[in-house]
Amino acid sequence: ASDAETISGYVFRGQGTQHVDYVGGDGHVHELWWQADGWRHVDLTVAAAAAVPFPTSSVVGYAFESGLFQPVATQHVLYAGADNQV
Predict the structure, then answer these.
(1) Selection from 59, 55, 63 nearest residue 43 by Cα
(2) Residue 47: phi, psi to the nearest 5?
């Protein structure tokens, strides 16, 4: 693992869930998420058919909760891909 890798966590009140995003040992972006009945895992790289992260990429995850100017709550995970795209 690279010293540049990070773990990012956030709460998504719109679904009552908690999320942890990270680059796994397989070089993919993964997410662990919790809701009332337990933890779940998803390989976001596979699920989004996305590029693998740049080797020293850090991930950041966050939620936009719904409100006056954001009527639909959304979740976002960003990283620099090996294809030089965000």
Answers:
(1) 59
(2) -60, -35
Place of tokens 């662990």: 32
pLDDT digits (tens, 9 = 90+) for 33-61: 999 999 999 999 999 999 999 988 899 99
> Count of residues for the chain?
86
pTM for this entry: 0.84
- What kind and span of H or E run contains 77? strand 74-78
pLDDT digits (tens, 9 = 90+) for 5-28: 679 999 999 889 999 999 999 999
What is the token pair recorded at 74?
A: 């959304």
Q: What is the C-alpha to C-alpha distance for residues 57 and 79, in angstroms, rounded to an integer?
A: 6
Contacts (Cβ under 8 Å, ≥6 apart) of 85: 51
